[in-house]
């Protein structure tokens, strides 16, 4: 599929054999290709929920790669890529109910997109996702320094060399600027977009499911609470998962992907009950 500016990527999906009633549109974590969520999608399909896996611009099947001459930010992701992918999904299953969700930064973008398009979805699900505001983390001053250093490094190199430094993929300067701005200020905003995200988040009223991993230092409890606090009108169901919920895998930011059955069970149950 192709976005308005010519960027293209493939959508992956898994769906139950019966007529599809519910579809979860899924945003991956920063630097994680869509194919890594196939196990989660298959577990959801087995429980009657279709899942569409978005591909980040700049990774996997995307025809873009970040560099000094190729840049983008949240605006392209929210105004071009996500609408194009969601439109394809809706053509595939025009009569279904749609839900939006994601992992880590993908969950944040799903949240913001949902706030900008409140009539499109029935609810929001967040897995290992929270706001990056530096004050909500242990060792907060070091986190704050990282939010100052990452944009500087991205400008120096032409992109953030995430593969080399062990954080994300090779990320566009604009994405890192927008992410770090939220990390420093605690507010969601994006260059080139109206500064209304916070107001629209405050108006969100559909249900939210959050699944936090017990030992996830990327998303400590205060980080999740800061994000939920932006949506005071949205009822939420929150669960914390431990290793015994995840087939013995570590309850951290990424290990749950190896054993996603418990995640799928929570999501499917929440979608069926609606709250």
Summarize, please:
The protein has 275 residues and is of the alpha/beta class.
Please provide a written account of the structure.
It is a single chain. The protein is of the alpha/beta class and 275 residues long. The protein has a single domain, classed as Rossmann fold (3-Layer(aba) Sandwich). It is built from nine helices and nine strands. The chain has helices at 38-45, 74-92, 105-116, 140-157, 162-165, 173-185, 197-203, 221-229, 261-273; strands at 12-14, 22-27, 50-53, 97-103, 124-127, 160-161, 170-171, 208-213, 236-241. Strand 4, helix 3 and strand 5 (124-127) form a beta-alpha-beta unit.
Describe the structure using short key phrases:
two-stranded antiparallel ribbon; alpha/beta; 275 residues; Rossmann fold
How are the strands ordered across the major sheet?
A: 1-3-2-4-5-8-9
Within CATH, the superfamily carries the name Alpha/Beta hydrolase fold, catalytic domain
Number of helices: 9
CATH architectural type: 3-Layer(aba) Sandwich
Low-confidence stretches are: none
Q: Return the string of H and E elements.
A: EEHEHEHEHEHEHHEHEH
Number of domains: 1
> Termini distance?
32 Å
Summarize model confidence as the mean pLDDT: 95
What is the radius of gyration?
A: 17 Å
CATH class category: Alpha Beta
Largest sheet: 7 strands, mixed
**What proportion strand?**
5-15%
Tell me how many strands there are: 9
* CATH domain fold name: Rossmann fold
Q: What structural class do you assign from the helix and strand content?
A: alpha/beta
Q: What is the overall silhouette?
A: globular
């Amino acid at each position: 599929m192709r976005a308005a500016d010519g960027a293209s990527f493939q959508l992956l999906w898994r769906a139950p054999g019966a007529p599809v009633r519910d579809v979860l549109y899924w945003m991956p974590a920063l630097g994680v290709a869509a194919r890594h969520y196939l196990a989660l999608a298959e577990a959801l399909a087995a429980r009657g929920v279709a899942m569409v896996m978005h591909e980040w611009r700049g990774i996997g099947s995307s025809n873009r790669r970040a560099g000094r001459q190729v840049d983008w930010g949240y605006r392209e992701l929210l105004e071009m890529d996500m609408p194009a992918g969601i439109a394809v999904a809706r053509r595939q299953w025009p009569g279904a109910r749609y839900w939006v969700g994601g992992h880590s930064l993908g969950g944040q973008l799903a949240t913001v997109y949902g706030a900008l398009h409140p009539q499109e979805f029935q609810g929001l699900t967040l897995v290992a996702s929270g706001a990056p505001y530096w004050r909500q983390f242990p060792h907060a001053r070091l986190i704050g320094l990282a939010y100052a250093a990452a944009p500087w490094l991205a400008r120096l190199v032409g992109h953030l060399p995430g593969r080399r430094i062990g954080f994300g993929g090779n990320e566009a300067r604009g994405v890192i600027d927008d992410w770090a701005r939220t990390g420093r200020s605690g507010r969601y905003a994006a260059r080139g977009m109206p500064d209304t995200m916070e107001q629209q988040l405050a108006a969100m009223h559909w249900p939210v499911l959050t699944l936090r991993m017990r030992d996830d230092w990327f998303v400590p409890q205060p980080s999740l609470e800061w994000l939920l606090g932006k949506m005071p009108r949205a009822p939420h169901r929150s669960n914390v998962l431990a290793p015994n919920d995840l087939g013995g895998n570590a309850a951290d930011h990424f290990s749950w992907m190896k054993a996603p059955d418990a995640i799928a069970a929570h999501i499917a149950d929440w979608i069926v009950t609606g709250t």
